């Protein structure tokens, strides 16, 4: 790497247009944090090669993983009753991750994209919540790239049936991309710098600004987080009830995980120093563990709301992206790492069949290939 010179905050701001500075300041850009991360990157202290996790990483034990019971079993009915009661009391909220840049989807605001029959991803999330009347709330984590268009989309469709006070909007932060050499990455002939939203690991920082307190003031106790593009991660009383039950025994976070497909990688469910948690594939200390670890998290988590009150120090990772055909560097954190600091339970959920809870749509081809299946499953759950 060619060493980039050290710059002051004043020199950094001199490279940013007035309009872009306004966007950065309005969206919680932490210039001191960025400068520290840039320095760590330039010194080699922060690098992709140093993402490896220390400690003993092994296959999870049988007792670490709970499978969903049959809905008609005595256990299943008990969990469903527990979940329905929590939802009806207004204790459950849905956090929808809606701030991503959707680079593999053409850079659009994915939540506003039609899935089928004129219904967008956000429409289907809202209709899911709407099945429970005004009891549940939707907490939308937007970004500088999605907030305005998302608000317009919801207004244009009367919030898809939700009351205005059922939706809490909050924005995650924004940061600056760099070229691999450490200079600011520029996107166009006007030499504008390139902004990005720094990953779903921003959840805890962003939600603690105001949204979490607002949710808890209304009696909220449990939050289910999912990606806007995974519409099968529906508000299911069975899943909610399993977390409520686990919470009564000290669990603060429940992780949904599926059986991986051959060759698939992502956030694996593992044991680290004897405790279950999510470990991203690039953090595994031994590459052979990719074959031994069989469960992948779906980025759908359930939290005790009060467990998010105390800020956790999550790891910043160096991520290389291709932007406009060129390599760009950005720093991101991952929400799954909260499993390293919160007492965590693993829920093995299906990714096939009528009860599937996982079908991410990362590319337009994914949507084209799965549209009919998604429509059928949404109909079966009473969402359409």
From TrEMBL:
Q: Which superkingdom is the protein from? A: Bacteria
The species this protein was found in? Bradymonas sediminis
- Does this entry carry the keyword Lipoprotein? no
Record's Pfam families?
UDPGP
Protein family membership:
Belongs to the UDPGP type 1 family.
Q: What are the TM regions of this chain, as residue ranges?
A: none
The terms under GO molecular function for this entry are: UTP:glucose-1-phosphate uridylyltransferase activity
Biological process terms from the Gene Ontology for this record are: UDP-alpha-D-glucose metabolic process
Name of this protein? Uncharacterized protein
């Amino acid at each position: 790497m060619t060493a980039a010179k050290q710059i002051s905050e004043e020199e950094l701001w001199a490279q940013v247009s007035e309009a872009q500075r306004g966007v950065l300041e309005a969206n919680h850009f932490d210039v001191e944090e960025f400068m520290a991360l840039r320095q760590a990157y330039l010194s080699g202290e922060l690098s992709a090669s140093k993402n490896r996790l220390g400690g003993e990483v092994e296959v999870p034990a049988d007792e670490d993983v709970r499978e969903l019971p049959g809905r008609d079993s005595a256990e299943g009915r008990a969990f469903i009753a527990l979940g329905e009661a929590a939802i009806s009391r207004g204790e459950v909220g849905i956090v929808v991750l809606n701030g991503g840049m959707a680079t593999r989807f053409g850079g659009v605001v994915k939540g506003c994209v039609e899935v089928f029959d004129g219904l967008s991803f956000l429409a289907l999330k809202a209709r899911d919540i709407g099945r429970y009347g005004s009891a549940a709330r939707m907490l939308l984590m937007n970004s500088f790239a999605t907030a305005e268009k998302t608000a317009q989309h919801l207004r244009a469709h009367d919030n898809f049936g939700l009351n205005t006070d059922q939706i809490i909007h909050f924005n995650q932060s924004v940061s600056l991309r760099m070229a691999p050499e450490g200079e600011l990455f520029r996107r166009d002939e006007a030499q504008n710098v390139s902004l990005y939203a720094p990953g779903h690991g921003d959840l805890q920082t962003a939600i603690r600004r105001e949204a979490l307190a607002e949710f808890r003031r209304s009696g909220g106790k449990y939050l289910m987080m999912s990606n806007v593009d995974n519409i099968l991660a529906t508000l299911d009383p069975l899943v909610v009830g399993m977390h409520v039950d686990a919470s009564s025994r000290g669990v603060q976070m429940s992780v949904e995980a599926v059986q991986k497909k051959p060759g698939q990688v992502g956030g694996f469910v593992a044991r680290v120093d004897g405790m279950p948690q999510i470990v991203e594939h690039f953090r595994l200390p031994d590459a052979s563990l990719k074959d031994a670890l069989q469960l992948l998290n779906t980025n759908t988590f359930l939290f005790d709301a009060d467990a998010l009150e105390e800020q956790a120090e999550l790891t910043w990772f160096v991520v290389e992206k291709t932007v406009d055909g060129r390599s760009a560097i950005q720093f991101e954190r991952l929400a799954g790492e909260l499993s390293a600091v919160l007492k965590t339970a693993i829920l093995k959920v299906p990714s096939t069949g009528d009860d599937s809870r996982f079908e991410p749509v990362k590319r337009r081809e994914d949507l084209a290939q799965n549209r009919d299946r998604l429509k059928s499953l949404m109909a079966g759950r009473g969402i359409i």
